[in-house]
Amino acid sequence: MRKVPLLLLPMLLAGCTVAVEYGDIPHNVLAENPRCNPAQNDSASVGGKDYFIVTSRLPDCRGDTIKLTNHRADRVRFGRFSPPETIKPAKGDKQLVVPLAFQPEDAWWDGLRDAANLRKGRVLLYVHGYRETLQTTARDTVQIGAMSNFDGPIIHYSWPSQGNLLSYAVDETNMYWDERNFRTFLTKLARAEWVKEIVIVSHSLGARLVTPAVEYVDRTSTNADSSNISNIILAAPDVDREDFERDIAEEVLAARRVNNDRRVTVYASLSDRALAVSRAVHGYPRLGSPYCFSPFEAKDLKAKGLPQRCFATKTKYQTEPAKTGFTIIDTTDLSGGGAGHSDYLRSLAVCKDFAAVVNGARTTDDRVATAQAHVFTLRAPVKPTKADIAAVCKRVAD
């Protein structure tokens, strides 16, 4: 009976999506407080908030703390935040809040520039996936920074995911609605002269914002190679695998960009139940799940004594670049829980590899070669304890 909800989920996602309710308060009222639209920078309000945020979510500035709703905003806002805090109100249950303050856009860019200049122009940009809230994504952003010890400013891009299991279709709709906002932001970031290296981390549905935006920047950049977008990490990407192979990889991983240090690392798992559901909904395999769509290919692999796992292929070049631009890490046997969809935050071996990739590593000692030159597995640690995992992954309890 445990499998029944999972078996029903594709039908629920496809036909029983939870509707988005406007609410009892006009949306302009939620955001009319000057704290939502500051005309001047308030140094006191952003003091101690070390993480940068860009969001297309509608804010609610009526209370003592700024909240981000699951609705679309009329414009993109810029701000700073600090790690989530648990508070106990006078009445009611404990709440997880994210200390957040908005800034005028110019002041935000000035602050990012100053922070980047202190760290040789390195910037990390994190884009979340499906079923998320500000609380969960802020937590993950902080974890990524702590786990990798990233030496530079960290930006969290927050789009209006509903944070609801049955709102996949709404999340997908909002993600596509937000494409222009995100690519406009990424274009400005990539064209800033003081940004020397951009590390992009995306999770799940967030990859569908990231990959076309990078492709857009590549096509329109005055810098012919957009070489400062150098390190793209796609964790459990909910992207059509064939679309990635045919269209996206061709532009994003053009030989001249790969030779200028552009690379894409994908973390994929056949144990990822969320992507199995996405495949059932969309009909075709996802980039983050090595499912063999062709039973003949699976049969051939089995006959050769190889795991029945099918991955995205490498881009084909007339002249091979001098460097390796595309790597897949197969985490199938290393699931860290959470439906196998967040191994990069939950599995000790994957966390370790992920942190190294964030910091520029092209390979690690724990990678194990496979029959395909661009695909690797990872050596499993010997029975890691929860304390071992926490020490490496830096994960805060859910």
TrEMBL record:
It holds the Pfam family DUF900. Residues 1-19 form the signal peptide. Keywords: Signal. This is Esterase/lipase superfamily enzyme. It comes from Sphingorhabdus rigui.
